[in-house]
Amino acid sequence: MEMKLEIKELGKDFGKKKAVCNVSVSLQAGVYGLIGENGAGKTTLMRMICGVEEPTTGEIVYNGKNIDEIGREYRGILGYLPQEFGYYPHYSAMQFMQQMAALKGINGREGKKRILELLEMVGLIEVKKQKVKTFSGGMIRRLGIAQALLNDPQIIIMDEPTAGLDPKERVRLRNLISTLSKDKIILLSTHIVSDIEYVADYILIMKSGLLLQAKTREETISGEQYKVWECEIPTEELEAAQERYVITNMRNTNIGMYLRIVGDKPDIPNAKRTETTLEDVYFYEEARGGVVECGD
């Protein structure tokens, strides 16, 4: 069955503050990476998609129906991992998953089978009887991912899913997301841009409540404004270069400073064009145009 989640002119105000401003985007099966600095509106947008926050303006439509009209059925096809994941510290991992399954109406033999499959999937099967209060931050995050998948959701929303995960755990999560993405809508945000670069089919960039762009990964990094140049300059020229260019990386070298510059070709003789990464795009957008506000 084809799935379509439409976000139409969505806005959210908290008093006089506009957290999300007139966001419109259409999501179908695939992985959508949501990037932006703290305060960009990512979490608020996700909470509205999950029905946790009520929009001030606009609507969210799933397969032609407003999610408020779908109600309980919509929550039944949704899996959500919030940024601040609540858990019962004195429960074992198994007990916690059973509690969450009961809340989602998943009981009996099939429920237990599903729980064990998910604990195996996230690498917690060996500690299923261990109390959650003894878990590391990464283990708790993996437990949160498992509970989000309990109802085999069609829409999966993950806010900072890689927080607290070590590099091996992040690779495991990326692989898991890839296997799920063929027939599900997956929206995830993370400050670790490389995680999104490896796994996302589409990139959404937010800044100050605004959706700056929503494109495929290939379209995003191929934008003319995101040309990347590598060069070396004397150390004493660094301050002037920082004022003139968007620099996404620098390091000391034997002759001065290596720079990675995004934008038009810099007026530096040894500058050479190189491949653009999503991190280059992210830092360019964060640096571009100063402060951007809803209504600009």
Q: Gap between N and C termini, in Å? A: 39 Å
As a percent range, the share of strand residues is 25-35%
Output the radius of gyration. 22 Å
How many independent structural domains? Answer: 2
The H-level CATH homologous superfamily of the largest domain, spelled out, is P-loop containing nucleotide triphosphate hydrolases
CATH architecture of the largest domain: 3-Layer(aba) Sandwich
Name the shape in a single word: globular
Q: How many extended strands?
A: 14
Order of helices and strands: EEEHEEHHEHHHEHEHEEHEHEEEH
Structural account:
Strand 7, helix 7 and strand 8 form a beta-alpha-beta unit. It is built from 11 helices and 14 strands. 33% of the residues lie in helices and 28% in strands. It has helices at 42-49, 67-70, 72-76, 93-103, 108-121, 137-148, 167-180, 193-199, 217-221, 238-244, 278-287; strands spanning 5-14, 17-27, 30-35, 57-62, 65-66, 78-81, 155-159, 185-189, 202-207, 210-216, 228-233, 246-252, 257-262, 272-274. Strands 6-7-8-3-9-10 form a 6-stranded mixed sheet, with helices on both faces. A 4-stranded antiparallel sheet has the order 2-1-4-5. The longest helix is centred in the middle third of the chain and has 14 residues, at 108-121. It has 2 domains: 5-220, P-loop containing nucleotide triphosphate hydrolases (Rossmann fold); 228-275. It is of the alpha/beta class and 296 residues long.
